[in-house]
Amino acid sequence: MGLMTAADHRIPQALADTLAQPRAYADGTVLETYRWLREHEPMGVAKIEGVDPFWVATRHADILEISRQNDLFHNGDRAPTLTSQAVDKKVREMMGGSPHLLRTLIHMDAPDHHRYRALTQAWFMPQNLKKLEDRIRVIARASVDKMAATGGTCDFVSEVALHFPLHVIMTILGVPESDEPRMLKLTQELFGAADPELGRNEAPTTVAQATDQNIDFGVIVDFSNYFRTLSEARRANPTDDLASLIANSQIDGQPISDLEAMSYYIIVATAGHDTTSSSTGGAMWALAERPGELKKVKADLSLIPGLVDESIRWTTPVKTFMRTVTADTEFAGRQMKQNDWLMLCYASGNRDETVFEAPDEFRVDRKPNRHLAFGYGAHLCLGQHLAKMEMRILWEEMLPRLKSVELAGTPAMSEAVFVNGPKRLPIRFEIA
Q1: Within 13 Å and on the Cβ side, how many CA atoms surround 420?
Q2: 376 and 367 in contact (C-beta within 8 Å)?
Q3: pLDDT of 99-117, one tens digit each?
């Protein structure tokens, strides 16, 4: 990072360290850090040993503005997720200088981002998704029946929240149901690499300690091998699923590269269910602790879309994304230099007291709810309409049957700086 007039804006070390500790995102410590930063240093600089320095945006307005200015704040110039210097060096060695193991939409800037996004955009538009509503409702009903069959206690995450959106996205993608457990395990290993229970390798306690030994390139290799086989099958015999569309995609009259095709499959197959699972689990966790909110939404099912939005704000599955400054600029009263790195803290923006009344309360009838959980601007989440539709349908099927719910043990969040959510949610419930 260049010379900073930012010496005055250095974040206290203990708070900076928290931003790179996966456990802090699981136990809620990071929310305390965010609260302090929003009040005292909303655009500060984190200096952590083993990690390049980075600006930290914690206020809703700043995150929104950075997300609007895609030319000034790039996704692809450096790693878009917080990465140690050791891992960055290893990835660049492996990828011929590129800081990216994959090349998904989150790794791209204009003009490529728009062109690659356009390949599948129509699939995720509300008018196209309407055709899937009946199929999704059948899957949702089966999920509620499965929950009912547990006899009144279950781990809501492992029984319902994980499998419902997984089955939906795999159906759309064209992955056979028999391969869904494999897809789930690989997704958890990818996003949960820093979680001692979910990752393949020994998990570092902080991003700064991560070396190439901690990063399991094998997960990406396994994903790619699976989707390469699927892709070849869909090129030979295309069907009407998303895998066929990706397998046969072209840019400027040329087939997309193997790296970009595999990256596309992986982002759809992972982000397409994991974040929805997290928000669904987050909603049930909140309702189990707040019988008044459950009663409110059961009495008025038109509040379900509000419940969905509030659970997405409340959980904010994508916690952070990194951006790179493309030119010397003044932003939020700070002098930023070209190639400076910057962290967007979505979960902080979604608890910003200047935007949300009583932000630490869970309110199914919160209005307005201008949360940032799907991002904003050019990189607004491609699957947001699908995610909201899935959750809406699940609650439409479940709430009329759910008489009561309470915690039946200690829930737990996954440990991750990038994407996290509930990994355990034992509940006791009555269902009709």
Answers
A1: 27
A2: no
A3: 999 999 999 999 999 999 9
In 108-257, where does DSSP find H-type helix?
112-120, 126-129, 133-148, 156, 163-173, 180-191, 217-236, 242-247
| Sheet bearing 426-431, strands edge to edge | 153-155, 426-431, 402-407
Residue 419 DSSP class: B
C-alpha distances in Å from residue 381, one per residue of 25, 238, 378:
21, 27, 9
3-state secondary structure of 402: strand
Give 184-235 pLDDT, tens digit per residue: 999 999 998 888 899 887 777 888 777 655 556 889 999 999 999 999 999 9
Cα–Cα separations (whole angstroms), residue 104 to 211, 221, 262: 23, 15, 9
Cα→Cα distances 137→26, 70, 131, 153, 301, Å: 32, 37, 11, 23, 16
Strand partners, 343: 56, 322
DSSP three-state, residue 426: strand
CB–CB of 223/102 below 8 Å?
A: no
Q: How is residue 342 written in tokens? A: 């910057």
Asked if 317 and 202 count as a contact pair (C-beta separation under 8 A), the reply is no
Which tokens belong to 119?
A: 């390949």
User: Directed axis angle between helix 258-289 and helix 163-173, to 10°?
Assistant: 150
Domain span holding position 15: 5-431
Number of domains in the chain: 1
* 167-170 long-range Cβ contacts below 8 angstroms, 24+ apart: 167/139, 168/132, 168/136, 168/139, 168/273, 168/386, 168/390, 169/268, 169/269, 169/272, 169/273, 169/386, 170/269, 170/273
For residues 416 and 195, is the Cβ–Cβ distance under 8 A? yes
